[in-house]
């Protein structure tokens, strides 16, 4: 029997997808706060952003 492991980013995305809309927003806001440049602009409502 072959055991397959999912890459960590896929596991994280799967777990985020299982959250409620409110919890998902909290997690994504925290990720933006921690990892996005402070001078980045969010374009539209998606994760596309432009660093100035």
TrEMBL record:
Name recorded for this polypeptide: Uncharacterized protein
Natural source organism: Virgibacillus halodenitrificans (Bacillus halodenitrificans)
Organism classification: Bacteria, Bacillati, Bacillota, Bacilli, Bacillales
């Amino acid at each position: 029997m072959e055991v397959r492991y999912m890459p960590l980013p896929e596991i994280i995305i799967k777990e985020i997808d299982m959250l409620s809309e409110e919890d998902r927003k909290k997690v994504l806001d925290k990720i933006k706060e921690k990892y996005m440049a402070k001078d980045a602009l969010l374009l539209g409502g998606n994760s596309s952003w432009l660093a100035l």
